[in-house]
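Q: Okay, next protein. This is HTH-type transcriptional regulator TtuA from Rhizobium oryziradicis. I've checked the sequence twice, so it should be correct. Can you predict the 3D structure?
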Amino acid sequence: MKMSKQFPVNALRVFEAVARHNSFTRASEELAMTQTAVSYQIKLLEDNIGEALFLRQTRQITLTETGERLLPKTREGFELLREAVALARQTADEVLEIHSAPTFASQWLARHLGSFQLQHPNIAVRLLRSESKNDPNRENADVTIRIDKSPLPGMICHPILELDYTPMLSPALAASIGGVNKPEDLLKLPWISTGECWWTDWFQAAGIPSPSKTAIKFTAFGVLDLEAGAAIAGHGAAMLSRFYVEDDLAAGRLIQPFDLSYRDQHIYWLVYPPHKRNTPKIKAFHQWLTEALPPLTLGTA
């Protein structure tokens, strides 16, 4: 029996593309094949395995249990093959594609990547702002920096950063109420916030267990650079981290009235698939992050 009959490599490649896109049409576009050819390859693979791999519904396909079992190792196998070919073709220049949580990308990473490239002049960097909840398996990133309470199952996840938060505001806004001298003064001002929980927790730590509700004037759904910009403009007091606004504090655009800070349970993680654990450019980037970022305390206040 020919090897192609025993091990349907091309059909597996088509299966991985269809599963990744959840679409026969988009898979056919990626693979430069007709939809008929894509369907034929899936049928060959299903006949080879003896089970259906997709449930075909009107305008929608989903993986069967057999397809769910087949996908992870198939995906890993093709990633290993791509990595092997890339290593074989490797030249002096490499590209490291990083998908990062938006504020970390713009407020810290973009400003510090120069030192990484000085240390590794053979590695070019492509940086994209990306919502941290995206599935790294469905992105083309080499690494992803995401924010979450716990590691992402099935991925290599290195904790790299945790932040403390404390109220900050513009000097002009503080002066408008005669200064912010005690925590209760913040109740006279509108809050810039994704919600009230951070403020409530901070006030409890300050000895005010049930603060009276104040108006939430602006929300940016946790995008801290936008919330910092609104605070600098005087729209309200924001719960911010010194890690991102040190320059604004030094320049007097923001003030931090109190030393008391609050730490939520979210951690910044460097994430990549297990098959990339030995990729030199990823190992170099992880080491640089570890050296460049503040030391982790992992939960201690």
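A: Here is a summary of the prediction. The mean pLDDT is 85. The chain has three domains: 3-88, 92-159+266-292, 166-251.
Q: Noted. On to the next one.
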